[in-house]
Amino acid sequence: MHYCHTQFISLEQVSCSLCSETMERDVLAVHNGENCPQRIVTCEYCEFPLPAIDLFEHQEVCGNRTEYCHLCRRYIRLRERNGHESRCNGVQVDNEESSRDVAAERENGARRREPPGYSPRRLLFTIAITGIAVLIGSLLFQKKTQNNQVH
Predict the structure, then answer these.
(1) Do residues 51 and 38 touch, judged by C-beta distance below 8 A?
(2) InterPro entries of this UniProt entry (predicted)?
């Protein structure tokens, strides 16, 4: 502890309970509220709480998700939503930030593209194999549990 002219200054070192960084007690409140990389912040797009250190990477992905604008019938990235809402007048513009007009494509008979190699037969086979694997796994787990209870 140190006494400096007119005020008492605490030089006591404390550790942040979130990130374990050591600092003077006087700085801890500011660190916890503004600087700690482990403090909890929320994503501006989905309001998900996460550590500040992970926010940038999360918002890079989250901000690229899209929502449908019912006025202009286009998909708009969440990171561009505020600007779009202030400019959107319900008229479709070719150079708008959205990638395509899905409603118009559907009206013209466009179908959803199937993934490459898709076939109903292959899907059914995959479901059957998965079911068999789950059944075998549960039987083995059940047998293992019964053996453990006997011993």
Answers:
(1) yes
(2) Innate_Immune_Apopt_Reg (IPR051986), Znf_RING/FYVE/PHD (IPR013083)
- For 55-84, give the DSSP string: HHHHHHHHTT-EEEETTTTEEEEGGGHHHH
Measured torsion, CA atoms of residues 91, 96, 98, 103, in degrees rounded to the nearest 10: 30
* Nearest Cα to Cα of residue 100 among 114, 87, 61, 108: 108
Nearest residue to 78 via CA among 59, 96, 55, 95? 59
DSSP 8-state assignment for residue 2: E
Burial code of 61-93, b = ≥16 C-beta within 10 A, e = fewer?
ebbeeeeebeebebbbbbbbbeebeeebeeeee
What contacts 100, CB < 8 A, 6 or more positions away? 74, 75
Q: For the segment 10-33, what is each residue's pLDDT rounded down to a tens digit? A: 578 999 999 999 999 999 999 989
Measure the CA–CA gap between 17 and 28, rounded to whole angstroms. Answer: 10
CA distances from 69 to 46, 65, 89, 93 (A): 17, 13, 11, 13
Residue closest to 52 by CA, chosen among 18, 21, 80 = 18
Residue 141 pLDDT? 75
Whether 101 and 73 have beta carbons less than 8 Å apart is answered as yes
